[in-house]
Amino acid sequence: MKIVGVTACTAGIAHTYMAQSALEKAAKADGYQAKIETQGAMGAENELTEDEIANADVVILGVDVSIEGRERFDGKKVYETSVSRCVTEPQKVIEDAINS
Amino acid sequence: MLISKKLIDMDIKAKDKNEIIDQLSALANADSRLTDLDSFRKAVYDREAEVSTSLGYSVAVPHGKTDAVKEPFVCFAKSVKGVKWNKQLVHLVFMIGVPLQAEGKDYLTILANIARNIMDENFRSNLLQTTDKDQVIKIINDGEQKG
């Protein structure tokens, strides 16, 4: 199972990165591959490549604000939720995304 | 340096999150990080009112992004007993202040690494165990380099 995602919170200084880390850790614990792009105060980091997006089984958007490049995920299975949920219950978010 | 000994309280006594925000803001002000204590506090309160910055793991990360910040900083506080932060019991508080306009992004990178480290159980338990301010700075700085 390959997961890609984007996290972005309002201020872009803390929760964006906590959510990224939480999702990556939870995915690893479940034996999945995950790469999460952050769109915070520094702009986009850990950017997803076209191939990574093309090969992903599911896209998780943990976003409280509108993001750059959303059209990259057109035609993919996209699961959108809040940044806070990605931090508080990352395992559940992944499970829901896969089953969505 | 984003963090200094003056920005650390190893056993904060407060009855709620507002008291913690007030006390930590006062530390930041005393360390010349702010241009305006009241408007910084207001920015942090406003941010808290949007969504609580306590999202489990016994941690809260209140923050203010405002022109009332002169020098970016991280305040750290520990509550041995724990403080009720909305519905969560919080033992570790990282309060972040950044100016509205980011000049250079080095400190944002450091803050992002601290945020990622907060999700690491060892990082949290090391901070919970130590009683020494130098050690707190070391744990937070070591985390910075790990990325």
UniProtKB/TrEMBL annotation, chain A:
<keyword id="KW-0813">Transport</keyword>
<keyword id="KW-0597">Phosphoprotein</keyword>
<dbReference type="GO" id="GO:0016740">
    <property type="term" value="F:transferase activity"/>
</dbReference>
<dbReference type="Pfam" id="PF02302">
    <property type="entry name" value="PTS_IIB"/>
</dbReference>
<dbReference type="InterPro" id="IPR050864">
    <property type="entry name" value="Bacterial_PTS_Sugar_Transport"/>
</dbReference>
<keyword id="KW-0808">Transferase</keyword>
<dbReference type="InterPro" id="IPR003501">
    <property type="entry name" value="PTS_EIIB_2/3"/>
</dbReference>
<keyword id="KW-0762">Sugar transport</keyword>
<dbReference type="InterPro" id="IPR003353">
    <property type="entry name" value="PTS_IIB_fruc"/>
</dbReference>
<protein>
    <submittedName>
        <fullName>PTS fructose transporter subunit IIB</fullName>
        <ecNumber>2.7.1.202</ecNumber>
    </submittedName>
</protein>
<dbReference type="InterPro" id="IPR036095">
    <property type="entry name" value="PTS_EIIB-like_sf"/>
</dbReference>
<keyword id="KW-0418">Kinase</keyword>
<feature type="domain" description="PTS EIIB type-2">
    <location>
        <begin position="1"/>
        <end position="99"/>
    </location>
</feature>
<keyword id="KW-0598">Phosphotransferase system</keyword>
<dbReference type="InterPro" id="IPR013011">
    <property type="entry name" value="PTS_EIIB_2"/>
</dbReference>
Automatic annotation (TrEMBL), chain B:
<protein>
    <submittedName>
        <fullName>PTS sugar transporter subunit IIA</fullName>
    </submittedName>
</protein>
<keyword id="KW-0762">Sugar transport</keyword>
<keyword id="KW-0598">Phosphotransferase system</keyword>
<keyword id="KW-0808">Transferase</keyword>
<dbReference type="InterPro" id="IPR002178">
    <property type="entry name" value="PTS_EIIA_type-2_dom"/>
</dbReference>
<dbReference type="InterPro" id="IPR051541">
    <property type="entry name" value="PTS_SugarTrans_NitroReg"/>
</dbReference>
<dbReference type="InterPro" id="IPR016152">
    <property type="entry name" value="PTrfase/Anion_transptr"/>
</dbReference>
<keyword id="KW-0813">Transport</keyword>
<dbReference type="InterPro" id="IPR004715">
    <property type="entry name" value="PTS_IIA_fruc"/>
</dbReference>
<dbReference type="Pfam" id="PF00359">
    <property type="entry name" value="PTS_EIIA_2"/>
</dbReference>
<feature type="domain" description="PTS EIIA type-2">
    <location>
        <begin position="1"/>
        <end position="143"/>
    </location>
</feature>
<keyword id="KW-0597">Phosphoprotein</keyword>
